[in-house]
Amino acid sequence: MERDEFYQTIERRAELADRDDAADATRAVLGTLGEQLETADAQRLHGELPEKIGDELTHGSDDERLATEEFLRRIEKRTDRADTGETETITLAVVSTVIEHVDETERETLLDRFEAFGYDDLFEDLDTVATE
Question: Can you give the residue range of the structural domain that contains 120?
Answer without folding.
Answer: 3-130
